[in-house]
Amino acid sequence: MTESSFKPTNFIEQMIAADLESDKHGGKVQTRFPPEPNGYLHIGHAKSICLNFGIAEEVKGAKCNLRFDDTNPTKEDVEYVDSIMEDIQWLGFEWSGLFYASNYFDRMYEYAVQLIKLGKAYVCSLTPDQMRGYRGTLTEPGKESPWRDTSVEENLDLFERMRKGEFEEGEKVLRAKIDMHSPNLNMRDPVVYRIKKAVHHRTGDKWLIYPMYDFAHCLSDMIEGITHSICTLEFEDHRPLYDWYLNTLKTPCHPQQIEFARLNLNYTVMSKRLLLQLVQDGVVDGWNDPRMPTISGMRRRGYPATAIRDFCDRIGVTKKDSCIEYSFLEQCVREHMDVKAARRMAVLDPIKVVMTNYPEDQVEEMICKNHPKDESMGTRNVPFSRELYIERADFMESPPKNFYRLSPGGNVRLRNAYVITCDEVIKDDKTGEVTELHCSYHPDTKHGKTPEGMKKVKGIIHWVSAKHAFTGAQVRVYDRLFSVEFPSQDKSISFKEKLNPNSLMIKQNAKLEGSLADAKKEQYFQFERLGYFFVDPYETTDEQLVFNQTVSLKDSWAKEA
Ligand code: ATP
Ligand code: MG
Fold it and tell me: Which pLDDT score is estimated for 561?
């Protein structure tokens, strides 16, 4: 028995613990994360990353490889390879070995030749359309290809000529000879190799034929000595084929494929194919647009890696398909930000307040805590003067009953400062829009004091001194990228028709507390009462700071629902 402090927390880890106990793989545990470099990683991949790399972290001596599943040269690119490595490292994981399926193309070719020699593979000349017709359906068996019984010699010759480029794409394929009557369609003589006259980002023009996923995947796992090949549920029906290839080729090791339920999130899409369309159509600002469900998008939005890992831990790993609420991910982010973000005041949609009884040239330094609970984060002085900005939404001319903020004749407390009363509402003659509020302040209410005779004020709002405001920032407030819960479900309407037109709101006129002028790229803050904000590392310039709203303070969607 292997001694370890490993505490299994899901069914896959329990299987691994049992395998360690029974010494099934000689005490060895080796997993891998096998992305195809045809897009950026998304939050679904994070679940798989946390599972595979997590096992390697927890089990003593265990390893996890990063292997690029680069068998389809027409869709793959080094840009994706680089982004995938960056994202995994940012999440805080390290791979034991870095591999590419394309490293094994020579060996895969040899294994294919071996299949032919065993009489278990043949070159088929049916056209793609014919092949579909021969395949049968879930209720009808397939039909055998007329090329199924070609001799080994002839097949070897044809396969060699496929490799040399003597045939055109789609003219011939190599197929495994399994069972056209199998109830599992994957077993009806699946394609092993196809012709693709494309340049590969690593092997260049060396190959004109490329292995299919099922063949390449099990062999890559086997070559690396993977013990537990963890994948998502849709590969359950591929497992018999995975096992068939390895059994037929009598390979020296046989990894165990284990499936788990993929992560689904509402209000977004997670297929790389769909995400690529958003990027190509310019609907979003690249793969790392802060609204994208990609890891790089979330990083740019300010989601901490620890929050994403915590989210993956908390949703758990099962075999049952389910959909996780996007708001749960946001809640994890909020919990992590709450602890570490310094508090600041910022007004995003300003309206001016003039305190008519406050001396013209007076400035008071109000002492404000940087964090309500963490004393070690200290305090700062925030200047207070006769003219301030408050949030337009914190004033209402004809408020409903439970509106505790500012209204004509009403009182409100300015956070860390005084209680004010709204005496006069100034409007634009033409538009009727409220342009300024004339108020009086109550000198005896500083720092939360309520003088005798004054009714306790319920509402507390944030403010920024007009004279001291920092205006060199653009603040970007985000909402869900889609306005429907399952954008790709109803296929009769394109998912692009379901985009939320208000997913990005740019606040060009924001008034920020002066200290924010010194904010650096990738710093984060809580803007009191508004949410958490992160300084965009890409679009912040010497002239303008760009703040991305990471997440609001409350789940505004819960209220609506
Ligand atoms: P997509 O459908 O987004 O294109 P994919 O499965 O084709 O994803 P791969 O690059 O092949 O993308 O995925 C790498 C690994 O990540 C695979 O092992 C896959 O099972 C896993 N994975 C992909 N999407 C999810 C998800 N939503 N939840 C959990 N694991 C996932
Ligand atoms: Mg895939």
Answer: 46
